[in-house]
Specification:
mainly alpha, globular
Length: 290
């Protein structure tokens, strides 16, 4: 993590306000040209990227230094958006903090207002009721719980969030005992699809059912797939490393393969015309250790 040198003067104060001070300086007329030209829209991809980098640190259980670094970067993105809004006369960092605090208090009447809930599920139902009341006061009386799920979320996370909110208000059309069977049926429908359009629709229905089963098992499908993808990447990297080492040991440099790893062996591992491998079973990249 980047740190100032021992003799460097800190151009910011202590505590939570430090990053907001720095960002204001960066956006000043004599500040950083790149930071000064940023807008809410231009910063959007960076906010998303930093959030995903933080998720990777959490998923991999990395050390506190990495988590601190990624949390700090996420804070800097929030500070930049707040600074832009302040320049436009809309709101400032203090109002952002106060709005966050007010929202948390309003959403937790069982902590701050004496309302009683039985368990965590009761808290979630309370939240949905409060959100509906807030939407009505804001002139959106017809807004449903699913309308409040951001469509910009990754598809798995978006679908899982919609299913969770629908279930909280009693809409859960697939019987619990039939979810696994529905996955099997939809996998067969995908395999039997006779056209690209049919395959596209069947694949979507299969994924929708898989999200439903993961939800019933209290598994976040977005997180589960991300971690599974990381395991797949790690297995691929291990295979690539082993192939490079094996070729080097066999004098592969004379045959032009040394140092190329999977790139030199891909057609041998998966000859043209063969079915795609299934990770975790019949593919060397995804084979499970016994």
């Amino acid at each position: 993590m980047a740190e100032l040198g021992p003799d460097a003067e800190r151009p910011f104060g202590d505590g939570v306000g430090a990053i907001f001070e720095v960002v204001r300086r960066l956006r000043a007329p004599d500040g950083c040209p790149w930071d000064r030209e940023q807008t809410h829209e231009s910063l959007r991809p960076y906010l998303l990227e930093e959030a995903h980098e933080l998720l990777e640190v959490i998923d991999r259980g990395l050390d506190d230094t990495r988590m601190l670094e990624e949390l700090a970067t996420c804070c800097s993105r929030v500070a930049m958006h707040a600074a832009i809004a302040e320049e436009e006369g809309r709101f400032d960092a203090a109002r952002v903090s106060e709005a966050a605090a007010a929202k948390m208090v309003a959403r937790h009447p069982h902590v701050f207002a004496g309302e009683r809930v039985a368990d965590a599920e009761g808290v979630l139902r309370l939240w949905e009721r409060r959100k509906a009341e807030e939407a009505a006061r804001a002139g959106r009386p017809d807004e449903t719980p699913l309308d409040r799920v951001p469509a910009s979320l990754p598809a798995l996370a978006w679908t899982a969030a919609m299913q969770k909110r629908a279930a909280r208000v009693g809409f859960d059309p697939e019987p619990a005992e039939g979810v696994a069977g529905a996955i099997v049926d939809r996998a067969r429908a995908l395999e039997a699809a006779g056209s690209p359009d049919e395959a596209f629709r069947a694949a979507g229905e299969l994924l929708l059912a898989a999200v439903g089963l993961a939800r019933r098992r209290h598994v976040d499908p977005e997180d589960a797939l991300r971690v599974a993808g990381q395991r797949y990447r790690d297995r691929f990297s291990a295979l690539d490393r082993d192939l490079r080492a094996a070729e080097k040991a066999r004098g592969g440099a004379r045959r032009g393969r040394a140092g190329r790893g999977v790139a030199a062996h891909g057609r041998v591992l998966n000859p043209p015309g063969t079915p795609l491998p299934r990770p975790g079973y019949n593919c060397p990249i995804g084979r499970r250790k016994s």
